[in-house]
Specification:
single chain, alpha/beta, 6-stranded mixed beta sheet, 42% helix, 15% strand, elongated
Amino acid sequence: MNDTAPRPTLEAVAARAGVSRATVSRVVNGGEGVREPLAERVRRAVEELGYVPNQAARSLVTRRHHAVAVVVAEPESRVFADPFFALQLRGISKELTAHDNQLVLLLTEGRDDHTRVARYLAGGHVDGALVFSLHLDDPLPGLIQRAGVPTVFGGRPGWSDGTADVVYVDSDNRGGARDAVRHLLGLGRTRVAHITGALDQTSAVDRLDGYRDVMGDAAPDLVAPGDFTPAGGERAMRELLDRCPGLDAVFAANDLTASGALRVLRERGRRVPEDVALIGFDDMLPVAEQTDPPLTTVRQDIEEMGRLMARLLLRGLDPPPAAGPAGAGPEGTAPEATAPEASAPAGVVLPTTLVRRASA
């Protein structure tokens, strides 16, 4: 049998640092107001003793689990095949890690999963939720609201179940689409088609609206439905060429759709950009730079969207502490600041940029 060394305690850290147990607890749990020389002594004692906070006890003190649920309203086959989700998850993970929070990934394969996710969120396992890729008929917003969990959504809300005052992060999908179509017209193209995304998602609706802002409703035959996937781009491109063989430009709802459209154009003997100019949306480098020719596209900062979602959620979870009487507080602490932090905006819309490459 191997003897196991006793686990260092809060009292042992306090004795090593020469401070009170309350001061150690305040430093270990991320509290404000401990003067820096004392805080440094505590941190040094923690490192020397190898003290690891008991998470259950810490949660009782801080009322925080330091865990955030990331809910993606898509099946895992889609999430792990689409670089968009990898980029957004990377941004979220970086921000959560920087603030010592754990990411808990929850996927929804079908309707049964909605109840499971809502039950998990209501069970007090996480401090908040980041939710994206919602569809217009998705019950998740209402279920999450009833669970009472602080939430930030990725994408402009489009549901109509009475949920209000939501915090969300999105890109200027409509403005980016207008820029793409104007660029194609500026190249002298006159028959500009659009392959939509899944129109039960607000990003696809906004991009279609941006296309129509410039083109109007004069050419409904030049719009074909897609679903943000390469296969959807292939189907829509075949439909467009069969219906409108004279088209000379295509604005695709995302880069994956554009990659599928590009394959069909090549099969049909259409040169890009000489015969048909092509523009995507997202600027996902694993896709946009590796197509042949490289893809002109509308760039949205997907990773930054993820980071900003996490930042807004964490900011809401950590309101500034209330001020106490002058001089109050544990040993070695300074009076706390009284100025409240500005409240988070209801919605943040990030700008987009047209990135020109060889396809248009």
